[in-house]
Amino acid sequence: MTVNYTRRYLLGGAGLAALALVRWPSPASAVTATFEVEKSEIEWRKILTKEQFDVLRKQGTEYPGSSPLNKEKRKGTFACAGCDLLLFSSDTKFESGTGWPSFWQPLDNAIGTAIDKAFLMTRVEVHCRRCGGHLGHVFEDGPKPTGLRYCMNGVSLKFMPAEGVGPA
Fold first, then answer.
1. Is the peptide bond before 167 cis (omega within 30 degrees of 0)?
2. Cβ–Cβ under 8 Å, residues 102 and 90
3. What is the DSSP code string of 89-113?
4. What's the rounded Cα separation, in Å, for the pair 99 and 78?
5. Is 151 one of the annotated active-site residues of the chain?
6. CA-to-CA distance for 68 and 155, rounded, in angstroms?
7. Given the residues 83, 128, 131, 151, the one annotated as active site
8. What's the rounded Cα separation, in Å, for the pair 61 and 51?
9. CA angle 94, 121, 100 (to 5 degrees)
10. Which domains can be identified in the chain, with CATH numbers?
11. What is the separation, in whole angstroms, between the first and last Cα of the chain?
């Protein structure tokens, strides 16, 4: 009995340690450049919701399928929720089946990228070029013509309908 009890604690402790390592973002994943729009943590917290702050400023991720932008089909532009920089045209949005708004191409001079080694894998993180806000990741399994899938957190975006386009 004592052996099983000790083994259970050992395995449980190892599992918790592994979980901590997986959840803890590596320092390489944090965007550390300077940007046109710079604010203190307190200033960001005043203008962003808790969810937006977690994603845009702390490289969090929203739950798949939770964003109303997944169902957005109108013509328009998706902008950064932190600084309003225009990021993606609705013409490049597609249904990826991942649960996050996906695009095959950003607008010119809209995004920056960095290597993200969090969660024990290497990915390409996408951030807003102007404020550095974390938007999501880009993968090489998207549709033509680029073959890219910009998998974005809906909470990091705001949709701006084209002129003359009414509410959904």
1. no
2. no
3. EGGGEE--SSSS-EES-PPTT-EEE
4. 17
5. yes
6. 9
7. 151
8. 9
9. 20
10. 27-161 (2.170.150.20)
11. 63
Q: Which residue is listed with tokens 């894998």?
A: 121
Residue for token digits 């809906």?
154
Of 125, 59, 60, 70, the closest CA to residue 99 belongs to: 70
CA dist 7 and 56 (Å) reads 41
**Which among 84, 118, 126, 123 has a CA at the least distance from the CA of 101?**
126
pTM of the model: 0.79
Token pair 């993180």: residue:
125
Dihedral-angle region of residue 15 (phi above 0 means left; psi in -120 to 50 means alpha; beta otherwise): alpha
Q: Where are the beta strands (DSSP E) in 13-133?
A: 76-80, 86-89, 93-94, 102-103, 111-116, 123-128
Per-residue pLDDT of the chain (168 residues; tens, 9 = 90+): 444 555 554 455 554 444 344 434 433 444 567 899 999 999 999 999 999 999 999 999 999 999 999 999 999 999 999 999 999 999 999 999 999 999 999 999 999 999 988 878 899 999 999 999 999 999 999 999 999 999 999 999 999 999 865 555
